[in-house]
Amino acid sequence: MRPLALLLGSFAVVGLLALLLRWTYGTGHSLVARRPRTGTPAEYGLLVPVAAPQDAAEARELAGRLAAAGLRHTLVTTTDGPRLLVWPGDEAAARRALDQP
């Protein structure tokens, strides 16, 4: 009787783990994942906006200038349009890099 109970208990644990993994890694059912929300330029934590490109081509060009200058940056879509953001310590260097032709 004891080996049968151990076998059934093992199957129950494996089944429970399978259900938990399916719930965790299933698409569209996670409690953790949220839909991305577009925020204002001030809602991106410590990052500060240094440029407001008009379109994707200009955004790529400006991002390339920042990358060439060795500056970490991110391009986000805000409620006010696209913005290039950098860390506060890199703001002055980023503005200089963007001002050069």
Describe the fold and architecture.
The chain has helices at 2-25, 56-68, 91-99; strands at 48-51, 74-78, 81-86. It is of the alpha+beta class. A hairpin with a 2-residue loop joins strand 2 and strand 3 (81-86). A 3-stranded antiparallel β-sheet has the order 1-3-2. The mean pLDDT is 87. It has 3 helices and 3 strands; from the N terminus they run αβαββα. It folds into 2 domains: 1-33; 35-101, Alpha-Beta Plaits (2-Layer Sandwich).
Question: What can be said about this structure in brief?
Answer:
The protein has 101 residues and is α+β, with helices and mostly antiparallel strands. It has helices spanning 2-25, 56-68, 91-99, and strands at 48-51, 74-78, 81-86. Strands 1-3-2 form a three-stranded antiparallel β-sheet.
Tell me how many strands there are: 3
Unreliable spans? none
**H-E order:** HEHEEH
Strand content: 5-15%
Largest sheet: 3 strands, antiparallel
Radius of gyration: 24 Å
Proportion of residues in helical segments: 40-55%
Q: Provide the CATH architecture of the largest domain.
A: 2-Layer Sandwich
Ends apart, CA distance between termini: 82 Å
Rough outline: elongated
Number of helices: 3
Could you say how many structural domains there are in total? 2
What is the top-level CATH class of the largest domain? Alpha Beta
Q: Strand pairing plus helix content: what structural class?
A: alpha+beta
Q: What is the fold-level CATH name, i.e. the topology of the largest domain?
A: Alpha-Beta Plaits
Main-sheet strand order equals 1-3-2
Please tell me the overall pLDDT. 87
